[in-house]
Write a structure and sequence with these properties.
Elements lengths: L2 H30 L3 H24 L6 H29 L3 H28 L10 E4 L5 E3 L16 E3 L1
Antiparallel strand pairs: 1-2, 1-3
Helix pairs in contact: 1-2, 3-4
The protein binds fe (ii) ion (FE2) (2 copies).
The site of one fe (ii) ion has 8 residues, from loops.
């Protein structure tokens, strides 16, 4: 592929991915305001942006086998845990940006768990097997991730059990 087209696809993928995420967030805001139709509009268009992102990503040749996709997940989480968030945390603390520090801290702690979960899944996926991870619980406040059952209190942000979402 020509370099410029590949760069354009990479940028379009990033833009569509962000648009998808923003629209999902805006949909939740509208739903909380009781504006069901606007919530639906944001969600539907978020779906279209996800399709655009998927098409761009596929065209870039980035969608591979599940073991390779798990490795991509491990690599991404590993980078966030060991380089990105520690650096961002240090800067936010230095600049006394408390909200940013809290946001980065929640992400860093969850990404550590994500890397382990992906690594465990990859060991079985490499043998062609699926992994029974049990029920997964996510803290809706900070993104803390755990399995089997939701804790009484989130160990990262202190949110109560009722704030956990099960998958
Ligand atoms: Fe993660
Ligand atoms: Fe939390």
């Amino acid at each position: 592929m020509h370099e410029m087209t590949n760069k354009d696809l990479t940028e379009a993928f990033a833009g569509e991915s962000q648009a998808h995420m923003k629209y999902m967030i805006f949909s939740d805001v509208a739903a909380k305001e009781g504006k069901k139709n606007i919530a639906r509009l944001f969600k539907a268009i978020a779906c279209a942006e996800q399709i655009h992102a998927t098409n761009h990503y596929r065209t870039m040749g980035e969608i591979k086998t599940t073991p390779e996709n798990l490795q991509a997940g491990i690599d991404g989480e590993h980078y966030e845990v060991n380089e990105m968030y520690p650096a961002y945390l240090a800067v936010s603390k230095l600049q006394e940006e408390k909200d940013a520090t809290r946001s980065f801290h929640g992400a860093l702690e969850a990404e550590k768990i994500h890397e382990v979960m992906y690594s465990d899944a990859k060991k079985l996926a490499d043998k062609g097997e699926d992994i029974d991870v049990g029920k997964i619980y996510i803290c809706s406040v900070c993104g803390y991730t755990t399995t089997n059952q939701a804790p009484e209190k989130c160990p990262i942000c202190g949110a109560p059990k009722s704030k956990f979402i099960g998958f």
